[in-house]
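Appendix B. Chain record.
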Amino acid sequence: MTSVLILYNEPRPAGSGWHEADAGVMAEVEAVAAALTAAGIPHRRAGVRRLADLPEQIAGGDERVVFNLVEALDGPASDACFVPAVCRALGREPTGNDAAALTLCLDKGQAKAALAAAGVPTPTAVVVPLHGAPGPTPPGTVVVKPVQADASEGIDEAAVVDGHDPSAVAAAVARVHRDFHQPALVEAYIAGRELNVSLIERDGRLEILPLAEIDFSAFPAGKPKIVGYAAKWRPDSFEFHHTPRIIPAPLPAAVVAAVRGHAEAAWHATGCQDYARVDLRLDAHDRPYVLEINPNPDIAPDAGFAAALAAASLPYAEFVRAMVANAAGRWRSRHPRPAAAPATGPETAGVTVRWSLPADREAILAAAAATLAFRADELAIAREVLDDALRDGPAGDYQSYTAEHGGHAAGWICFGPTPCTVGTFDIYWIAVDPASQGHGIGTLLMARAESEIRTAGGRLAVAETSGRPSYAPTRRFYAGLGYHEAAVIPDFYAPADDQVIFTKELR
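Structure tokens predicted for this chain:
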């Protein structure tokens, strides 16, 4: 069964700025965890603050799927967009959108360019570079907001100004530059109705969920009808309590069809996958304009996406299951099984080969010592290599796998790319606890290593062993797995202790 790592950003401390938006992240974590528990899917949780924290947290387990709930990290706003790329670099598959879509949609100016190129209508806008002065702006009322910010950060009544008033526009732009240290987007304000459209991929099909409308009817005359930061995150605000959601939105069929069409076009134009939300506005003639695309939107139980699931009679747990299934399918496509699997039989029953965990350390070292094949200095090096592998995880130079038999670590193999070569990998260590020998564990470990090497683009596996008579079984073992004795270096390890080098082409 696929196991899942729920990865999320640790909430920022109160008073640190936009910390309210982080509170929703923990609600998402609890909801996803509950859905996985209900489905009987094993999972663990890991919080991160920085992009650099990811390798250690991901390597702490052997989950293939990462449920990505990371929305913001310490550092540049774009850091959170790179989480999927780091997951894949470590051999895991994230749910939700990939780094390209997240990066594109984070930059509102670039996203608008992609929409325009695809023929999707979006309000006219200009980007004012950091420290730059506003030039010509769209006519009429405009909204001035950070070009790279999420969760409506920086959007409030002060962001809505008269585009014909250069001083007002300049002040709003200066505020974005000062508070966010990034360019400002000056966008035409569409005064009509606001709609949210949630989309998901399930069982290979894109589904558009019922449209939602934000009800501004309680807003007094003259108050900008926007869903700003306060409306989303500050329960003590007027906006929070007076922007209810109407779902399904009461719209003519022709408008619904146009909105759905633009939302789907926006999805494809920005390369979305798994799930997203598209925000739109209708003008006075009910013509829809796409404001922005939110890949990996808030999926907390009280958020708009969950409301759309409910309106579609799609249980939240089914949504979570579908996202995990999507990611697991992508993982399998990126990690195809080798063409030829090793022969197995009753002797390999109950043996599982998996990524090594810190809990395996003592058993692995004890097994290596119990073989009586290694000197004390060699065992010290094995310990160093194993510790490096456990510390660095799949992104490290040493790839470490454990054979579990009878509930304990019974065998170990460690391999990695050979420096200064193209596609050559060394089998550094292989050891099987004498009490578990005779069950084909060594063969399974070698098969797993060769499979992982092929997946990593390797073409040649190299194994080195001693030429001493006591190592004859080891040399027969390699030969029986198709390894060729490529070279012998006399007296390499010690006088009268030759090094025998075996190689195997893996393509």
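Further analysis of this model is presented in Appendix C.
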